[in-house]
Specification:
Order of helices and strands: HEEEEEEEHEEEEEEEEEEEEEEEEE
Distance between the termini: 43 Å
Shape: globular
Number of helices: 2
Strand content: 35-45%
Structural class: mainly beta
Helix content: under 10%
Number of domains: 1
Strand order of the largest sheet: 1-3-2-23-22-24
CATH class: Mainly Beta
């Protein structure tokens, strides 16, 4: 069995000993944790920038849900901000890097989907107050009806139009290779649909599949390159006209990331997977000016919760308790 660790959408570190200082109470999640965002003059240029040494991190505990029930993990988390932008850094142990997301493989004159999903982490902030979110976190926006057999039967969203959430969703296969995290928001659920919406603009990913669903439709265009982890971007793809060029073992991306535009492109991402550990940095303007985003004011505090997915779908995740973000 795999022993990886994960995030939940109801919508994700190995510690650097000597640089992150956690109290026993924080590590155990004995009380509501506070993440202090430290003010820095210059934005961190990457995952190992000296600016991260200005921040005091916390070790956020996560509890497994559904297939991960009874399991626990943690994510070392830091935050810094400048005059205009905010940055989050996450590190967590993960025995296997999951970036397959059903990629195609050619074998014995047939195209088959490889087994495997992807690793993900997400954060949910309030745009407008979500009733009971400050104490119950993501559980309050996961609406599973009485008698449901599992979380797949539920809906994700708020109960009223007045309640709105800002959901940051980093995906190892579908967003990170493009250099972004999906920027989405939550609103009221309907009788038929959940309340999760993409921010204004475009983004997400494009399925690489023919109409008869038997094989990939696109391949890497001449003059273009695959990006991080051998992923094919939608903008680098061209329609396949000659399938005879492929040989056994060839693989092609199934869920091709798109370069986002508009408000959907607000959250930039950088990541690294090495020695069984993910390190992920997400950044965004403090105030984007967009109504589908939380406007951060350094004079205020903000509640948020996180989910971690380990090679799994939305219903199978690890969830954190509510955390308070404060600016120093």
């Amino acid at each position: 069995m795999r022993t990886k660790f994960v995030i939940s959408l109801s919508v994700c570190l190995a510690l650097f000993i000597g640089t992150l200082h956690f109290t026993a109470q924080e590590a155990m999640g004995a009380s509501k944790q506070v993440l202090i965002a430290a003010k820095v003059k210059s934005a961190p240029a990457g995952l190992d920038d000296a600016a991260w040494g200005k921040a005091r991190g916390i070790d956020v505990p996560f509890e497994g849900k559904e297939v991960f029930a009874g399991q626990h993990t943690s994510v070392a988390t830091k935050a810094v901000y400048t005059k205009d932008n905010i940055f989050f850094l996450y590190q967590w142990k993960d025995a296997n890097q999951s970036i397959t997301k059903g990629a195609w493989q050619y074998k014995d004159e047939n195209w088959i989907h490889q087994k495997g999903n992807e690793d993900r982490i997400s954060m949910l902030f309030e745009i407008n107050r979500i009733n009971n979110f400050a104490t119950k976190g993501c559980a309050i926006v996961c609406h599973v009806p009485d008698g449901a057999t599992n979380a797949k039967d539920g809906k994700f969203g708020t109960l009223t139009t007045a309640e709105k959430g800002d959901l940051w969703h980093w995906k190892a296969a579908r967003s990170d290779p493009a250099g972004y995290a999906d920027d989405t928001w939550l609103t009221k659920i309907s009788e038929k649909k959940g309340g999760r919406k993409g921010d204004k603009g475009s983004g997400g990913d494009k399925k690489n599949i023919t109409e008869d669903k038997s094989k990939p439709k696109y391949m890497l265009a001449q003059g273009k390159s695959l990006v991080k982890n051998g992923i094919l971007l939608a903008s680098h793809a061209v329609e396949i006209t000659d399938y005879s060029v492929f040989k056994d073992g060839d693989t092609i991306t199934y869920r091709m990331p798109k370069i986002p535009t508009g408000s959907f492109a607000d959250i930039k991402a950088d990541s690294r997977y090495v020695n069984g550990e993910w390190t992920v940095m997400l950044s965004r303007k403090l105030d984007t000016g967009n109504p589908d985003d939380t406007a951060f004011n350094p004079k205020r505090k903000y509640n948020f919760a996180m989910a971690l997915f380990d090679n799994s779908g939305d219903e199978d995740s690890y969830d954190s308790e509510v955390i308070t973000l404060k600016f120093k």
